[in-house]
Amino acid sequence: MRTRLTLKLGAVLVALSVLAGGVGAANAAPADERSAVVRLTNETRTRDGGIPLVESDELNRVAQAWADEMAVSGYRHSDNTWRSDRLTQGWDTNGENIAQGYRDASQVMAGWIASSGHYANIMNDRYTRIGVGYNPSQKLWVQIFAGYPADRTATPPAPAGDTAAADAVTLAKVVYDSTIFEIVPGADGSETAVPLSFAKWRDVYRLRTPTPASTDFVKYPWSPTVYAVTFWPGGESKWMWTPLSFPQWLTAGQPAPRAAGWIKDSYYYQWGTSAEIFVEGADGVNHKLSYGEWAASGFRTQVQRSNEGYLKLSWAPEFARMLDLGTGAGRPLGYAEWQAEAFPTPRSVQRMPGDTFYSYRGNSTIWYAGPGMNRPVTVQEWQAAGSPAPAVRG
User: Which residues form the SCP domain (predicted)?
Assistant: First the structure.
């Protein structure tokens, strides 16, 4: 990764700016990325002893205006006058972070956190509000911060509604981000964990300190994805499973996950061409299960994909991925696809459904056409196939 560092000095702190390469997947909607940056910023602040910032529509507009301005006139910081002219009066400090080239919110936040200047801006305890801008065409990112004394001295309003009822509600916080949940009782006696907005936490619960949620960290031995499973009341159906991003894993304290026998949203299946059982995790990683691994899952029921599978001619090296065993619909199977599917063992057959041998009039070469290949065959291969009479073409 190439990095460009610049520093602006003045009455307002402006962080070092980082230009990082690495474009990749298609951009998500700017609104989604904006929300993710705000969330990750507040996760970082609360994890490291700060309080969350309030997302400001006004600051969002200012940040977006500067991201779009950079897309036209070049990558650089805005100046104090430009920002001051666009902020509602009453602030006593403001600043910004900018970046370019990061493909999503997680990556740009990781870059900012790794830079001391950016991190200082993120953690500045004088800031009370935040806005985020994102220009997807050039992957330009802007955070605008502002501090308002009125925000810092304001006391929470009186609790809305029944104070005793609010005090009876359990608040819990997961360790890997800043989200606080309220455990809401239902009329039937059940309990449901609901994410709590900052406004409700402030106004109803008066910023009451939540208890740590009961969370375990697990992964499949064959997959790199680490999941946080939070044990909300109500049993397995109420548990919350979260595949962790790298920043979330760091926030959680880099926990060593235990090996899991089963993870929610895993898909168990069996091809029609072998007795092997496979699982595809929620992260899309496929694995061929040993008996012990299937037992560890609790002998989960597998989907029978009985009309699909993998075939190999007993007399040739090629494999075929069969999409319909009944009609012979299939295609050649390459090594990369076979590997991604966790190396299912193909059924060895002398002939495949719908295949044929043929030759051209006046030419003794025999050809084979089937789901896995279409090529000339040797005399030995033709004999191993049973010496079928070839159809004459041409």
Answer: 32-155
